[in-house]
Design brief:
The structure is a homodimer.
Chain A lengths: L7 H12 L3 H8 L4 H10 L2 H10 L2 H10 L2 H8 L4 H8 L5 H9 L3 H9 L4 H11 L6 H4 L5 E4 L4 H12 L8 E4 L5 E5 L1 H6 L6 H4 L7 E2 L4 H10 L4 E5 L5 E6 H19 L12 H28 L12 H25 L6 H29 L4 H31 L10 H22 L1
Parallel strand pairs in A: 1-2, 4-5
Antiparallel strand pairs in A: 2-3, 5-6
Helix pairs in contact in A: 3-4, 3-5, 7-9, 8-10, 15-16, 17-21, 18-20, 18-21, 19-20, 20-21
Chain lengths: 447, 447
């Protein structure tokens, strides 16, 4: 009943079967595996074994597995396929959206050849159409396969037509109602179809309230709409309102996941989409840019320290890390809140209002932190002047960092730059430098 | 065709209608609004207006709107409802999972009373059952409404029974096949149902491969499975394999979103689930814990600096921020990678292997950063000893921070503590302190 799960023992056993070319045993072993798990297996196996296994799989299953592979492994495995094999063994077994995804990853010169080698000209046209939409738009991730009925039909005819159309569609999530020009009018619920007399015309029972997107809507907006309205599928229309495709929840879950990961990585100072099983080189390359920016901030900080001539007040050095760290932490907190509210909310307060609020939060937290530090420095027996300097600097740094952390992502967003860039090392680094500057400026006044 | 969207103008206009008690105009205005948008409207309106509006809505629509409200506003609005109104106007119009959610938020003494006031004893029993599962388990988020058919039936009977069952189910995502004991055997696809003769027995056409979860599986694992296998709905079984409920993709999208937000907030140093429109007090409370931990780190750093007596080498102070910041950045990068791989991957490498890899990444990045800093410090005309100290310290700090950032979340995970705790200020703060310690220790050896 339950599909089987992959573990290291299974991977090793299958590698051993493949070593002995015991293809039958492999196929028997994989009988109850989900294509997604077979894909994971192919990623875990050494490339030559993975190739052997993929060739051994039945054609349809192989195609499904290929869809589920990560891009790198897919490229490695598809390299040996002829254009004809690619077209007729892989692409022809796939839904239009998966087919378009895989084709779009091929080298430019192969794309055209693969499309020419498809036996069904309709499929070739559909895929070519999907490839024509700009990246990250609804058009680029939609699928062409859908079930639609004409508003003028009776339910009996719907059932008949649906039977015909269902052959081509993997899972029927919605039945769309269109007019004679193929313009989307609404949806027909399965419930209505099951519970109404088959002689009733569609026009009498379909639901006119349907949320759709046009082909040029950004995928993140599609994801936001589907999540907000709990949609399992959303129809895509062209600028004339004609139904051209549909996007299902699974594609949107992937978009959400990628978005969350990208924000998270950005906040953690990783500049490329990497995973812990990538190569040491790839991981280092993803880490260095932010580290170097952080170091640039460190060098500027060193100029600030030199400029104020720390050797005159060496006792100030002890609290430099505290000031810098607090500024950094506050800034990241503010920036993260903004990034999150921009991602969730279509309904935004004004920048001024947000800044005023952050001023309030900054003042509250600053007062708590500064009073505490005043007590601590006094307890540590630091000179009164230093205690005052540290406390006053803390207040200024926290308030400044809170507002800076709010201001930067809001501004980036205004200029259509991903506000998540503001989180992580960027705000931290800037706040480090400015924090130290404030610290020494306060010291100059007081000491 | 498209449902209408909410904006400030609409909110103001509706507030004005409500002011004049022009209920008819409000209802006309809201005719084409999705319940989700009406909920958002209720959150934006002042409480007295929100109450007026909610009372004006037709009962079923009001119930749907209540489900979509945020918890705080829902509590405010439901306060005026009698137990009887709650049961018969709200709960009876809802699916079991939504009903259980709303009831679970009520004060303990009202829960029992509401259940007693439900007219349908089956519904009361179902809700009470759902309330009995532990929080964050599959049982606690599943719904009881589903369409199931017996394996021994013919398709004709399935259609008839489904017609009956569909009355109670909002959207039919899957048809489950069970045996006489109600044990889950598989699923019947709509496609099969549409395209096979109605005289065929279910047993001949249903799909035996079905991924299910037991009631005690954690919701994050449910989300992982549904995302991995692209499931729109997953059946939930009890320990005997009996079908007891189902979880749909929309509940899982919410879980994913919450999970992503929690990790993101943790990485950004926010200790509570807050949003930018929460109160200044709530926002300050969510920020202070990490700030105070960061400050504790700062105080310890100050002890390190005092211990090594910075006044002997005041020129070292200039590079303290650089050393601390780099250590912090590297540590967060490592920790974030671990958190992400733990969240995505069920298939983990050993801790030793991960640490060795991070040692590699640490050495590569450290070499690049240290060489650069050596050149920069030389160019700034710093003494040779200081250049060497900064570079050597950087190497040690980066390598240490990389491994520490990997080790901590892996260890937390081993002890079943959320590894995301390790990201953000915690690792940064520790690395700040240890980084300074390394810096001064290297200096002692060299200068």
């Amino acid at each position: 009943m339950q599909t089987k799960k992959l573990n290291q023992t299974t991977v090793d056993r299958i590698a051993e079967f493949l070593e002995r070319r015991a293809t039958e045993s492999v196929l028997a072993e994989l009988e109850d595996f989900h294509p997604e798990d077979i894909a994971e297996l192919l990623e875990r196996l050494d490339l030559p074994y993975a190739k052997l296994l993929l060739y051994a799989l039945p054609e349809e299953k192989a195609a499904e597995v290929i869809v589920n592979l990560d891009e790198e492994r897919r490229a490695e495995l598809l390299q040996d396929y002829s254009v004809r094999e690619l077209a007729q063994e892989v692409i022809e077994n796939l839904d239009s959206d998966d087919a378009a995804d895989i084709i779009s990853e091929l080298p430019q010169e192969r794309i055209h050849e693969v499309l020419q080698n498809l036996e069904d000209p309709d499929q070739a046209r559909e895929i070519a159409d999907l490839l024509s939409y700009e990246e990250d738009t609804a058009g680029s991730i939609m699928a062409k396969e859908l079930v639609k009925v004409n508003a003028s039909w009776k339910l009996m005819r719907c059932l008949r037509e649906m039977r015909r159309q269902a052959e081509k569609v993997e899972q029927v999530h919605a039945i769309y109602v269109v007019d004679d020009e193929d313009r989307l009018l609404g949806t027909l619920s399965l419930k209505k179809l099951l519970t109404t007399s088959t002689k009733t015309p569609v026009a009498e029972v379909y639901d006119r309230k349907v949320i759709s997107v046009t082909t040029d809507v950004h995928v993140e907006e599609v994801a936001r709409l589907m999540r907000k309205y709990d949609l399992v599928v959303i129809p895509v229309v062209d600028k004339d309102g004609k139904l051209v495709g549909r996007i299902t929840f699974d594609d949107v879950m992937d978009v959400m996941q990628e978005e969350a990961e990208r924000d998270y990585q950005m906040a953690s100072g990783l500049t490329q989409d990497v995973e812990s099983d990538d190569s040491i080189f790839a991981l280092s390359r993803a880490r260095l840019p932010w580290l170097l920016i952080g170091m640039l901030g460190g060098v500027i900080s060193s100029r600030v320290v030199d400029y104020f001539d720390i050797s005159q007040y060496p006792e100030m050095a002890a609290f430099m890390p505290l000031i810098a760290a607090t500024g950094g932490n506050v800034g990241v907190q503010s920036a993260a809140l903004v990034v999150q509210s921009l991602a969730n909310d279509s309904f935004n307060e004004s920048i001024i209002k947000k800044l005023l609020k952050d001023l309030g939060v900054g003042l509250v937290t600053a007062t708590v932190c500064a009073s505490l530090m005043f007590a601590v420095t006094a307890a540590l027996g630091k000179p009164f002047n230093l205690s005052i300097t540290v406390s006053l600097a803390l207040i200024s740094v926290i308030v400044f960092a809170a507002m800076f952390g709010t201001f930067v992502p809001l501004t980036l967003n205004k200029f259509k730059i991903d506000p998540a860039v503001a989180t992580g090392p960027f705000v931290t680094t800037t706040n480090d430098v400015i924090g130290l500057f404030i610290y020494f400026s306060v010291a100059k006044l007081i000491m």
